[in-house]
Specification:
Oligomer: heterodimer
Shape of chain A: globular
Number of domains of chain B: 1
CATH topology of chain B: Rossmann fold
Strand content of chain B: 15-25%
Number of strands of chain A: 26
Number of helices of chain B: 8
Largest sheet of chain A: 12 strands, mixed
Order of helices and strands of chain B: EEEHEEHEHHHEHEEEHH
CATH superfamily of chain B: P-loop containing nucleotide triphosphate hydrolases
Largest sheet of chain B: 6 strands, mixed
């Protein structure tokens, strides 16, 4: 394998994510979709027959399903433009020293190894289609935790993968779930045994480096009874002229009395289509929390969901979206109450700047038998410019009379008096706006580990300056 | 070295509110501006600070000889002007501490992007935390404020008195050359008024600050002694004198001024 070194370069000084690494890919599939590509990916990974069959079935479903005609404009999305698989290195590494230099430099620039040393329990980094490095600290490994990339999981824990994959997000759930099921590569597999409390976060870092790549992370997280886990994913990509596609499927299993939190800070470049399905099923007394921060991508469709299956199961979905120029988010949340005394809290905060547009689509469904279910939905939108836009589409579907559903929505603008007040204290208009926005986002930011809160504030500043590529 | 206001005319929504105001507040001196409700006192304070709603139709305002009129509010603040507002607005989610840190850093030049290294640390625009913390604690002591206060969101749910103290706390950290105190006494009980006034006096001594104390009542002038008292009616200064003028006004009321003006016509 040969890797060109020292070819990292900054396109823009302000944005440390917008750089590309020159890599001679070990393998790259042809452009476009086909049975041959599915066979090729599966063979390269040395997969068992059941997984190849799963992929082929998914491809059929993908081809027969229509494109969604709601939410965002996908008219320019041409599936034949993308490469569906790119392998950056022959083998995934367990120690940082073994990682090829160009890739190492990429993640060094993104601050991953430093973060791992300081405050993470384990790290997986994925460059384009596959994981290039993953590690789990000894103290957690010894407690029986599994934290591997999904390809490894299929090889080493096939029974666990087979028992869980596509049971929460069926292949047929939506066209992009089917696409992911056919072409998935990478993503994480996490299993936390009964009663184990992983006190510090596990992190996965997804990087799209190549132009015109389709990245299809597939993640399964199982928090067994009474366990506790926090998984964080970060996503970045450089800006290219041609679009890239990120289509993830994330399935989470929160067993009895367990607690799982999944945090995303998504800062894809503006040429990325971000079409993600993430869903958790929660057993009795379990708690699932989605903390979802969207700053990047051009077009996003994403509706984190909780299926509250056991009695007293709880779900929290907290999201922010910051739509700058030419960005359109159609994001939201779903809470499906299937059991008595279940509780969901959905909080969505969106900011739209320039011609940016953010929409919130929320679904609360209370099934028959889910007595005394409670749900609270709060959507706050902040519009920064006259041409900015925000839309809210709440859907509420209740089959039990004694459930309690609350819905609040506000749309606001930065007031002249607030700006004047802050500016009269020496802050520039830009700084004053950023402070007001930070205040607006505070309920989200305070849920992040400190390091991520700092990073998010930095990203918001960049977004305000309009320089996020 | 002075805050000079020269024949200032200001209109709001097409209606003239200030009709030719002239004042000259030297550094280290205290001027009181007393007037009935609706006379345009707050218009004067907002105009000086640069609120976009107020349109200057004539005249000028200068700080140490430099006109303020072309400056944005933040430039005015950095030039050394401060306005303690009568009705400070609330900003949710922003702690008083982080706001004070950002504002203090901005006024002291930490916010100047050109002075920052291109790949400087994230918080390069902020004053070092430890240094700032120490200074804030000193000012909290001066104003007899509980440090817990710093964790609350800026002006959100503050009582009238708490807002006024927070304004003076900001003044203490921004170290202006000239301060306009707009009805700082309103909403303060007698103990709070005494503490806040003591703080203002100490800051004036420390900073050699010029003060323009805008007030309806004479009460605050028992604690902050003015060198000059102006009586302000219907958008202009109608009478100027020494501290005794405030006492006469307190005894006789604004009706006395109106009668005097009528006689003078």
């Amino acid at each position: 394998m040969s890797v060109n070194q020292d070819k990292l370069r900054d396109i823009k000084e302000q944005d440390r994510y917008d750089f590309r690494t020159e890599i001679d890919y070990v393998h790259r599939s042809r452009r476009g979709i086909g049975v041959d590509v599915v066979h090729e990916i599966s063979a390269l990974k040395g997969e068992p027959q059941w997984m190849l069959d799963f992929r082929l079935k998914a491809l059929d479903i993908f081809l027969e399903m229509p494109m969604p005609e709601w939410g965002v404009d996908l008219g320019a999305l041409d599936f034949e433009e993308f490469y569906y698989f790119m392998r950056a290195t022959d083998t995934k590494k367990r120690t940082w020293e073994e990682v090829p230099d160009a890739i190492k430099d990429t993640f060094d620039k993104l601050g991953i190894p430093e973060a791992e040393r300081k405050y993470l329990a384990g790290v997986e980094t994925q460059m384009d289609s596959e994981a290039v490095y993953s590690s789990l600290k000894e103290e957690w490994e010894s407690q029986g935790i599994l934290f591997v990339d999904m390809d490894t999981a299929v090889r080493e824990h096939p029974e666990l993968v087979q028992a869980h994959i596509s049971t929460v997000v069926p292949i047929r759930d939506n066209k992009f779930a089917a696409l992911n099921s056919a072409f998935w590569s990478g993503g994480s597999f996490v299993y936390v045994p009964k009663g184990v409390n992983v006190e510090i976060p596990l992190q996965a870092y997804f990087r799209i480096n190549a132009q015109s790549l389709g990245q299809f992370e597939r993640t399964i997280i199982i928090a067994d009874e009474g366990s506790n886990v926090h998984y964080i994913e970060g996503c970045t990509a450089p800006q290219y002229a041609e679009a890239a596609l990120h289509t993830g499927v994330i399935e989470i299993f929160v067993r009895k009395g367990a607690h799982a939190r999944y945090t995303t800070i998504q800062n894809w470049s503006r040429n990325v289509y971000n079409l993600v399905t993430q869903r958790a099923v929660v057993d009795e007394d379990g708690l699932m929390e989605w903390v979802d921060g969207n700053l990047g991508s051009g077009v996003t469709m994403k509706y984190p969901a909780v299926i509250l299956k056991g009695a007293r199961a709880r779900g929290m979905i907290l999201s922010i979206a910051f739509a700058g120029d030419d960005q359109h988010y159609d994001a939201g949340a779903k809470a499906i109450h299937l059991a008595p005394d279940t509780n969901s809290i959905i909080t969505s905060k969106s900011i739209s700047k320039g011609n940016g547009r953010s929409g919130f689509r929320g679904l609360v469904h209370v099934a028959r038998g889910a007595e005394r279910a409670q749900s609270k939905v709060v959507c706050d939108a902040l519009l920064l410019d006259p041409e900015s836009r925000s839309d809210t589409y709440p859907y509420i579907d209740v089959s039990e009379d004694n459930s309690k559903i609350e819905h609040e929505a506000t749309v606001s603008k930065i007031s002249e008096d607030q700006l004047f007040y802050l500016m009269s204290r020496g802050l520039t208009e830009e700084q004053a706006s950023a402070i007001i926005i930070n205040g607006f986002l505070e309920p989200f930011v305070k849920e992040l580990p400190m390091e991520y809160a700092v990073e998010l504030n930095r990203l918001i500043q960049l977004q305000m300056e309009g320089s996020v590529g | 070295m002075a805050l000079e206001i020269r024949d200032l005319h200001v209109a709001v929504d097409g209606k003239e509110i200030l009709k030719g105001v002239s004042l000259n507040v030297e550094r280290g001196s205290t001027h009181a501006l007393m007037g009935p409700n609706g006379s345009g006192k707050s218009t004067l304070s907002y105009t000086l600070m640069g609120h976009p709603k107020y349109l200057i139709t004539q005249g000028d305002a200068l700080i140490d000889g430099v006109s303020l009129l072309e400056m944005t509010p933040d430039q005015r603040a950095r030039a050394g002007l401060f306005l303690a507002m009568q009705y400070p607005v609330a900003i949710s989610g922003v702690s008083l501490y982080s706001f004070l840190h950002a504002a203090t850093s901005a006024v002291r030049g930490f916010g100047d992007r050109s002075a920052r290294p291109a790949r400087g640390r994230f918080n390069a625009h902020l004053m070092p935390m430890r240094e700032f913390r120490k200074e804030v604690n000193g000012k909290l002591d001066l104003l007899e404020m509980d440090p817990v206060f710093l964790r609350r969101y800026l002006n959100e749910g503050f009582s009238g008195g708490e807002k006024k103290r927070a304004e003076i706390l900001q003044m203490a950290l921004l170290k202006p050359k000239f301060s306009v105190l707009d009805e700082t006494d309103s909403g303060l009980d007698i103990d709070a008024l005494r503490i806040v006034s003591k703080g203002i006096n100490a800051l004036q001594d420390e900073l050699n600050m010029g003060l323009l104390v805008i007030t309806h009542y004479q009460r605050i002038l028992n604690y902050i002694h003015p060198d000059v008292v102006h009586i302000f009616v219907d958008g202009r200064v109608v009478k100027t004198g020494d501290a005794k003028l405030a006492e006469i006004l307190e005894e006789q009321g604004y009706e006395w001024v109106r009668q005097e003006l009528a006689l003078g016509d």
